[in-house]
Amino acid sequence: MFGIPGGAIEPLYNALARAHRAGGPHPIVARHESGAAFMADGYHRASGLPGVCCATTGPGATNLITGVASAYENRVPMLVLTAQTALSTFGRGAFQESSCTGVDTVHMFSGCTRYNSLVSHVDQLENKLVAALQAALGDPPGPAHLSLPPDILGAPAGPPRYRVADLLQRPRLVDPAGVAWLAREIGRARHPVFVLGEGCLGAGATVATVAHRTGGHILTTPHGIGSIPTDTPGYAGVIGFAGHETAEAVLRDPDVDLVVAVGTGLSEWASNAWDETFLNQRLVHVDTDTEHFRRSPMARQHVRGDVATTFARVLSALPAHAPAPAARPAPIAADDAGPPAPGGAPLTPQAVLRYLAHDSPADAHLFADTGNAVAWAIHHFAPGVSPQPRFRLHTSLEFASMGWAIGASVGAAFGDPTHAAICVTGDGAALMAGQELTVAVQHGLPVVFIVLNDGALGMVKHGQRLTGAERIAYELPPVDFARQAEAQGANGIAVDTAEDLQALDLVALCAGKRPTLIDARIDPEQVPPMRTRVRTLRAASCEPGSCMGKTR
């Protein structure tokens, strides 16, 4: 359980102390409550179990909200426990009062949770706890919040009444009529395209087999990276934020008569900024999450169902022999990859990404932070751009909290200690949330943090230049993150060239006894692949024609 204690939540920590002595759950003290929520997020991604975070009343609860909102947008199951002032003090101006008559924290959580309730009587607790867990692991999954007054937390409780594990089984739903319709449409299509999102993780091979059987092309959204292997026939790259020209070219092809979007929320970053060459009457949207269908009213049809089950049945309904395969798309190339830098040349973010792709431990968890780091990661770690990366890429795109990857990588190290945890972040995010490094120090977690240090809020800087905006408020002071990490008890390593980076043994660093921070002093003029985001910013902020000629 990740959190920070305080007076109102002390009864819970007393119980955790007793539980820990008996071999049960134990608390991990974050440095900021948002970091606790980010750790719970990373814990789930690495372990598959719901993350748990907690905070005391007042500012403890409000500090959690950013991390909880991030988990909500990314469908991460999480149990969120916050303290409340004592029931008898409601409306009397208690210290850090967070009741309905004070700063109403329950109301604040209502917009970023799947379940949200104040426990006002001890007999409610077990029912509401089970309901919260069911909602957190439901369809769609996400955070569930309970507000717990100290007089409830300190009251005696009877034995458990429910078999919680049995109540948390998720049914694998499928629509037989929808499957039959989908199989017919796919079988009739001459030039189908399949777009795989986050809902295809674990089912991508089946969807790819359907695509191959029908001669279709395959694209992934940023969240769908990792759902298929590098050598998947017909793969044409990432569509959406930091994506590839080859993927856009496939969707622009007038011969394409069917686009099957599978397991994706079709957000701005997953739909190529609501690209009408994607979102039109050619679209069929397949998902288990009906909320996602609200973003595709233009679709020809919605088919609800578990992705793996749905496409397994579609596959069984298709002819056994594949038609002539679709024309192989042009080789996927990273737009700004460039050749390896000569000896002594400034270190580029592309060189850092190449290093990670080739030198990471097998099956490591790699977390790419909001900012330039995630843009470079999506663009360069897609299947087919470079040899299959040796890690599982995790991103937090929609709410896009800076510093998320720092806490999430620490949580992942707790959730899956058998595989390495690596964080790629920027100097802006490191200044915002880098204190969570000390949690890894305290617990001897060999997390490797790589800071892309360019002396700026990089995405702000390049976004201003590319949209023709005023160049202001992006500069950061020079910071020696390697020395800062050493002062906090971690290994601190500064690298200025690709040769410096290649000299490091990343596998050994990930197997050490304490965390390592690599301060990668990169060329600040390398422009990240962010053209999709630039289009959205220009459309939102410019009068018609007023930004023409201001971008390169």
Distance between the termini: 48 Å
Strands in their spatial order, largest beta sheet? 2-1-3-4-6-5
Rounded average pLDDT:
90
Q: Label the overall shape.
A: globular
User: How helical, in percent, are the residues?
Assistant: 25-40%
Please count the helical segments: 21
CATH class of the largest domain: Alpha Beta
Q: Low-confidence stretches at least 5 residues in length (pLDDT < 50)? A: 543-552
The structure class reads: alpha/beta
CATH architectural category of the largest domain: 3-Layer(aba) Sandwich
How many domain modules? 3
Question: Describe the biggest sheet?
Answer: 6 strands, parallel
The CATH topology of the largest domain is Rossmann fold
According to DSSP, the number of beta strands is 18
Strand content: 15-25%
Structural commentary:
The protein has 552 residues and is of the alpha/beta class. The strands form three sheets. It has a six-stranded parallel β-sheet, sandwiched between helices. The chain has 21 helices and 18 strands. Mean pLDDT is 90; it is low at 543-552. Helix 9 links the parallel strand 7 (192-196) and strand 8. It is globular, with a radius of gyration of 24 Å. It has three domains: 2-167, Thiamin diphosphate (ThDP)-binding fold, Pyr/PP domains (Rossmann fold), CATH 3.40.50.970; 176-317, Rossmann fold (3-Layer(aba) Sandwich); 349-534, Thiamin diphosphate (ThDP)-binding fold, Pyr/PP domains (Rossmann fold), CATH 3.40.50.
